[in-house]
Amino acid sequence: MNSYRVGIAGFGAIGQAVAQSLDAGLPGLTLAAVAVRDPKAPPAFAWTQAAPAYTTIDALHEHCDVVVECAPAAVFRDIAEPVLRAGKKMVVLSSGALLRHDDLIELARQHHGQILVPSGAILGLDAITAAAEGVIHSVTMITRKPVRGLLGAPYLTDNNIDIADITEPRLIFRGSPREAAVGFPANLNVAVSVSLAGIGPDKTTLEIWADPSLERNLHRVEVVSDSASFSMEIQNIPSANPKTGRITAQSVVAALRKLTGPLRVGT
Q1: Most buried among 39, 53, 145, 218, using CB within 10 Å?
Q2: Is the same domain home to 99 and 165?
Q3: Does residue 160 have a known ligand-binding role?
Q4: What CATH number has the domain bearing residue 149?
Q5: How many CB atoms lie within 10 A of CB 4?
Q6: From the candidates 111, 112, 137, 219, which is the catalytic residue?
Q7: Entry pTM
Q8: Which residues span the domain enclosing 193?
Q9: Pairing state between β 89-92 and 114-116
Q10: 196-211 pLDDT per residue, tens
Q11: Which keywords annotate this record (predicted)?
């Protein structure tokens, strides 16, 4: 069995959930380091095993074989470039930021690194990537979110859209995942992941609805291809961060398990 030293960049709700699973024990995986703002004053955490090393973003790759990126999109490149230049693996949750730094894909190729995009808070990426081996005619994603999960998005601020007091569902965006990744950087990584799996961030259609009746994020994906037509829907239970589904951290843990497990299920 291969073994990997894992690093975590970003120690919010997702980072801590992934750390908790690694601390509890995952075969072949060791939590080696966590990148935090001030390594000399790390956040409190109830470790059951030996605490990992605390380090800075730019030094994280020195401690690890694979890095889990779950930090703000603004520091995405600072995390990714050293990891990929060192020829290591990086699990990316800020897939929207990857669009703005797509030269990192070539960097990974040159240095034999690898960028892994887990399913996160969406479903069906394996079916979409399989369909993309043929011809996909269309991919449409419809996202509905509780109002609190969308407040403060740059797109709303820039376009003077006030949703704080709406009483019925409101369509606030229709366009491409590339546009959404800029306007909703903390919300729509799922749409970018769907687009990367299928026909790309410019050809995929995305609708975003603010719905005051919802308590959970809801995503629906509809695909028409030459091999299959299918639709999928998921309702996510929010994590401690209302902008993120609880299943996101679990998808990272599942992706890490596949690195070492004797059985791998799914494309």
Answers
A1: 145
A2: no
A3: no
A4: 3.30.360.10
A5: 18
A6: 219
A7: 0.90
A8: 125-235
A9: parallel
A10: 999 999 999 999 999 9
A11: NAD, NADP, Oxidoreductase, Pyridine nucleotide biosynthesis
- Residue 219 annotated among the catalytic residues of the structure: yes
Q: Does residue 90 sit in the same domain as residue 129?
A: no
Model pLDDT for residues 111-138, shown as the tens digit of each residue: 999 999 999 989 999 999 999 999 999 9
Q: Is residue 240 part of a domain?
A: no
Would residue 242 count as lying in a domain?
no
2 annotated as a binding-site residue: no
* pLDDT the model gives residue 187: 74
Number of domains in the chain: 2
Using only C-alpha atoms, the chain has a radius of gyration, in whole angstroms, of 18
Same domain (yes/no): 76, 25? yes
Q: Is the model's pLDDT at 244 over the cut of 90?
A: no
Domain membership of residue 151 (yes or no) is yes
Helix, strand and coil content of the chain, in percent to the nearest 5, comes to: 35, 25, 40
Torsion of CA 128, 174, 170, 240, to 10 degrees: 50
Backbone angles phi, psi at 250, to 5 degrees: -65, -35
